[in-house]
Amino acid sequence: MSQEAVLDIKLNNDKVLSSSEDKMLYLLADLKPGDIPGESAGINLAVVLDKSGSMYQARKLEFVIKAVEHLINNAGPNDIISIIFFADKARVVVSASSPVDKETALRKLSNLDEVDIGSGTQMLRGIEAALGELRKFQGSGRLSRVVLLTDGLTLHETESLNRCRQAAAEGIGFSTIGVGEDFNEQFLIGLADDCSGRSHYIEDPSKIPDILNQEVEGFHNAVITNAVLEIEFEEGVSPRKGYKVKPMIYHFGEIKTTDNKAEFKLGDVRKDEGASVLTELILHSGSPSEKKLATVRVCFDIPSLKKENVVVESPVTVTYTENESEIGCQDPDVLAVVDSVSIFHQQTRALDLIKDGQRARGTQMLTNAMERLAKRGDDELAGVVKEEIQRIEKGLQTTPLGTKRITYGTRKLTPRAK
Fold first, then answer.
1. Class of domain 43-221 as given by CATH
2. Range 5-38+223-326: architecture per CATH
3. How far apart are CA 305 and CA 316, in angstroms?
4. Which among 233, 328, 332, 244 has a CA at the least distance from the CA of 283?
5. Tens digit of pLDDT for each residue in 233-257?
6. Reported pTM
7. pLDDT at residue 1 in the model
């Protein structure tokens, strides 16, 4: 077994009653990188930036340029960076080169006002230009990643998403950043989730440099890549739902199995962070004994060591007992994760119901989520939810700002041990 990563498996309870009734269990699989030696091979990065008319408001474009200048100045010797701006058209302002020609890149950025690409928002053209730049150095041992930043709605969302999915299948990851109130958060979140990236929300444009540089630093800290978690279930175990819970909550949906196996894509795993998956299982009746439920394995690459298809795995067992007194307390770590996921799922469903016109039912679910957030001590987020509930009760619509705060906030809920 590899020591370059540790796979920790927990059940909410490792003992169940051997009755005729089905039982629900939660399985939490946590992958933590080990002490992986070696230097980063660098990153092959394309930054795709909105330059539509709205980006000139609230100094958004000014902060974007500041962020990109920082990226250029701090590029490592193995890094490749291309900068693409889009509006009605796309323009490669800084072309990919090895090493980064910092002087030329900064000069071109200082002349950005001379770049006329219209005032609309066609992200697809920026994506196509970025992929052209990345492919100049794809396969060089570097991670190929794209960061997309926008403050508005783009044309051709479906085509953009499909194009990114195709590129993701080739090993190119996409992260997204939405600024302000007017972008489609479901589009940006879905794109990042489907393409091994992360989605960030920026309410205050002055935070653009911090968030952009934080995400790029994360690429440098990706010590494990292309991670896929597989669970092979034994007879008598029926999987239901799956969630990625670290670093951000993401619903994989109903678990579909092939030959009793289910796969969950984890993508990059960053140093000192790890990645976790929570699965909901139904156990059928069993006689008193220790029973194997599943085998959990993770396959991944380690770029700094030039290793591919490294595997760590662990069996999962539970004890069936007739003695109810043998069943101890449930694992607090697993319960804390379940609580976070439940709140995330509750607010997601609530906002969908409200959008579909089922305001009473949606408001009740949102109220429950608010109360649970307050009980956990997440007072700021609970306050945001309360403000939206008050609007709904007055017959008003939810606000774009409020729904974005709630949507992004619950994705980042940190488990609180009970």
1. alpha beta
2. Sandwich (2.60)
3. 30
4. 233
5. 999 999 999 999 999 999 999 999 9
6. 0.95
7. 44
